[in-house]
Amino acid sequence: MRKFLSRFRYQIATFIAVLGPGFITANVDNDAGGIYTYSAAGAKYGYLPLWTLIPITVVLIVVQEMCSRMGAVTGKGLSDLIREEFGLRMTFLLMTLLVFANLTNVMAEFAGVASSLELFHVSKYISVPLAGLAVWFLAVKGNYQSVEKIFLVACLIYVTYIFSGFLVKPDWKEAAINSVQPKLALDPGYIYMLIGMVGTTIAPWMNFYLQSAVVEKGVTAKEYAASRIEVVVGCIMTNVVAFFIIVSCAGAIYAIAPKEIQNASEAAQALKPFGQYAFLLFSGGLLNASLFAACILPLSTAYSVCEGLGFEAGINKRMREAPIFYFLYLLLIVVGGGVVLIPHFPLVRMILLSQVLNGVLLPFVLIFMVLLINKTELMGEWVNSRLFNLISWVTVAVMIGLTLALLGITLRGM
Amino acid sequence: MADRFLYFTELLAMPVLDLKGRRIGKVKDAAIVPLVHASRIDRLLMGGGDAWLTVRFDQVRSIVLGKGISLSEEQLVPYHDDEYMLRIGRDLLDQQIIDVTGRKVVRVTDVTMSIQEEDGRDVLSMLEVDIGVRSILRRLFQGAVPAKLIRKVQEPIPPNSIRWEFANVLEPDPLRRLRLNISYQKLEDMHPADLADIVEELSPIEREAIFETIDSEAAADALSEVEDPKMQASILEALEPEKAADIVEEMSPDEAADILSEMEEETSEEILDEMDSAPKTEVRELLEFEEDTAGGMMNTEFVSLHEHASVSDALSALRGNEDLLDGLNTLFLVDEEERLLASIPLARLFIASGTAKLKELASETHIEVPVDEKQNRVTELFDKYNLLTLPVVDEDGKLAGVITADDIISILRQR
Lengths: 414, 415
Known about the structure:
A: mainly alpha, Amino acid/polyamine transporter I, B: alpha+beta, 18 helices, 24% strand
């Protein structure tokens, strides 16, 4: 009995010990761009798009599980592995794309910070510089453990969307039916919206971030079972949040008059008639999500690039020891936040551009991931099983197909 | 740097010319055979027809950038994967190595080789391992831009290289390590804290390789310096129980107990079973205490003397405990039943005469804690009384161990 208890305690301890990377990565998925996409879907098509959330969850789990498994087994980041197995030129190409794609992503996050705080009448000329400083200090003054705790708290704040969903009093029956009943329509706008929802789900940078975080956390192959549970729980929670965002907008906007919204803060405005709290929760959630992603993106980018190209990296290094790391990190914050303050800056175009870059990058990253995870010399007994390989390749093919479709539509629209 | 040098990126795809100056293939890779020579490029691997051919270093006449490699002998044998070869392109490029002088882990981007004339032929030798922007530039443009132009363009960028002697290749497979003559002896001479930093950056199998290979004492020192207790535990868990036990025996008992308590009981038992009985008992006793109490924090290495002992008794006791001297700053006085009476700051011995009683040198305020005292209270005491060492006593008042300031610093840093 004592032995059993000690075992049990050990397992609980293991789960807590690995908690973090998977949960955080899945939640950051609902960043400013994600929230906009889900809000727009709910505002225009009501409960119809809800059925996509289940397949999206599956895809997200499959991809993230592979990343965290690779991290736990090899103890190396994704860009490290790509460099070791596919050489410098390929790594350089991917990293260049990654920097540009993430730079535009960071712009979107700071724009999210600006617009959510403008709802509270805070000028963006105050909010964005402050947010930039906060992001800088968080990384420079904190260590991985404390930063991770802050991030986990940020994950919890996402429940605000669940509350605002309830406050709107949507049609739950309709929502439940549409969650399990796929509905396709040959309306180009509807298809574009569906693709957009899947497209925002898996961004290339998340794979790099997740794998590095698993490594940084020191998760070992032995503890991996616990890590897998964490990934699954995180992905489900992410999509539960997405569900409530769609439902809020369906109840607040679509139920009254379906319309196209231009940004997520417009969705928050529309919640005002349902009480101050619904509005506060929704816009607070947006601020949290934007700030959260703005913290992670620049850091993760600088890490991935430096690891892949072999430059010194890490927030525990001094600026003189790791100049390129800090240069990249600062560049992303300053440029990413700065452009939001430039009047008439074509921000929407930039965000579209980021989608294009993500779309170009993602097929490479996914294919490399499946190739890497099948290498016995890297993964040993942890290579994909045949069934899982089938699932991964199908997932990869679907993701690439959808991303290319999104790319096509976006390029035509630009 | 030697007068004539060649980058590996330039060597790759260089044409190989036969005795009549005809082009018969181009270089695909180069290899050293460390058991024969630590730095000489022993073989060039050439691709021409269907299979790769091996060019021995003594079959080469001259190596000229922009022209090619001229052979002095054409009897080339087909290449077969020889386990005694360290291939630059396959095994070194893009992989991580340890920079022993710079004390860090770096990723190889390119290799600089010297061209030296020996017995009328050009011989290539490993000179430096290149990292950083300059070598990245070469890799990116290799093959696309003429080598001479690349050399000119890279000129303004400061080089970032590690001499080959100080580059330690990482190889997890023990058998291959022997065949490639890779040892981690250079790592044993590093400061344990530096070695720990390096180890933290490596992947688990590489970590294991290092701890498996270096001697137990160096391994124990480095392991104590690894910051994350979870990583410490997983390093030990990955080793054979005998080797792990050897390392644990070299560690101070409190640190050993801390690491063992992080493990699953089965594994830690296996390691304990392999240990010698004296350190085993000490570690086992410490394992009984909860981690966040004084008992869990303390170590059992201290020097205690009888209450009537004199300064010269103390000095001879110290002579008998030389291995403890590095971190020692306090002596303890106990009665017949080993109950703690007083503590004596070591420095006071220097200004006292040899016949003086230790009792007279004791600290005016005597502070001790029971084994079950909470961690927070202990750190508070260290802060309040500016302690370096705090004695811990068991239920009977017997001296059980001491907590030292370095333990407190680690705890505070982990918060």
